[in-house]
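Category: protein sequence paired with discrete backbone structure
Discipline: computational structural biology
Format: plain text, a pair of labelled lines
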Amino acid sequence: MTTLNRTLPILSCVTTLLVGCATGQPGLNAGAIAPQLLPAATSSNYDSHIWDNATTFGEVPSGRQTEGDFRCRAIGYEHATGYHPDAEKRNGNTFRRGGFFCANCLDHKKC
């Protein structure tokens, strides 16, 4: 995994991780338009991705927080701070279990 900086996490292409980050912050509720993974423009690594719009993520459901934190830690971030049930893969298909927005606690007020 690579990062552009500590506030812009990048996701490994392994789609089973269902996690990533982008600029902005999740809101209280998931938006009508699902976030989608996009290739990181400044990365030469084909496996690096970011979410296109963090503001479409809602809060992580309490029953999914442990899973989200685990998946975020797997790519080098501390905490799942957002969740969207219809998050999309790079190809536009929906992740079966939704997607998590990840952040480091120093970078995010929800930690």
About this structure: The chain is about 10% helix and 20% strand.
